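During the reporting period the student researcher (J.K.) took over the structure-prediction task from the postdoctoral fellow and processed the backlog of single-chain submissions. One of the processed entries is reproduced below for the supervisory committee.
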Amino acid sequence: MNSFKPNALPLLIGSLPMTDHTAALKLVFDHTPDIPLWVQLPLYREEGMISQFLSGLPGFAEGSEKNLLDTSRPGFDNELVSFFEDYLSLSESGDDLCGSRFALSGTRGKGFFEFLRQVDEKKTPFIALKGQVTGPITFGTAVKDENDKDIFYHDQLRDTAIKKLAMNAKWQAREFSKRGAVPIIFLDEPALAGFGTSAYITISKADVILGIEEISREIHSEGGLVGVHVCANTEWDMLLGADIDIISFDAFSYFDKFILYPEMIKTFLDQGKILAWGIVPTGKPDLIAAQTGPGLTRLLYGQMDELSGKTGIGKATILSQSFITPSCGTGSLDLVSATKVLALTREVSEAFRRTYAGLSIFLPY
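J.K. obtained the following structure tokens:
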């Protein structure tokens, strides 16, 4: 998939501060008409980035308000065996994952199925369709066992969690492929901002890469592109060397940290891979209110100029391998601020596409 060129199109991160999926998707289609995404509405607990992917895991009790996998409850061993039987059966047979424990369903899947409905209803081609799952480090350190221990440190539970996320990502990618669009699936990994700190001292780079690449393989098997989104700083060499296609980073606040890896960024881009520049801040509302499209465009132009100077890669090439995005999701904002973030993302994208249209690398917009 390294022939895919985003050409500075706008792309969003998954969440919005709304309760109406139809209205939320209208905002998505209005601001990212070429590559829309399904939306998580975390005002519903079931659509929180952890809660949404818990169902179907051994030890999880439906209806529970805790992010808990209880290995002590009666029948857990049978649940574990059943999980792996389902996993092996579906992964080896290639059967449809719809209706399985690995697909979203019920209140946890409203946003996804409303998205598919609207995509089908529009009957227009999309360049790509975007989905997301919670990354294995973030998920594994947010879900606990009955002893309040992160499941990432419980070998069996970590394995089930990664396989659940991987198969869900595969299912999403397959549904998008059925609609003739390139699947783009992001692994949202905010916990990687804490990598290397005392809170994650026992998690190695190998642990991170193994988990991400297990999910990545399932997405690639469906012809999809794999992105990893980190909403702050991390040790970027982990991701730049991993088998993924897109790195999504907060360019507004952390470009100075990301650019510390120019040689690895060059190798990443030389392989045809993609940077998703989170140039529109999603922090405090007053910071968002102070931003303008021209100001963010100038900031991003300067960053791309610096990247070009340090890597020797032409700016036209960098642009052709770039998405323009918010720095993170907007689910924790007020709706006015969130809407401005979406509008600024599209405005900055349009500014770059107008400026470089003469380079013949851009698709019509």
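The committee noted the following: Confidence is low (pLDDT under 50) at residues 359-365.
J.K. will present the remaining backlog at the next meeting.
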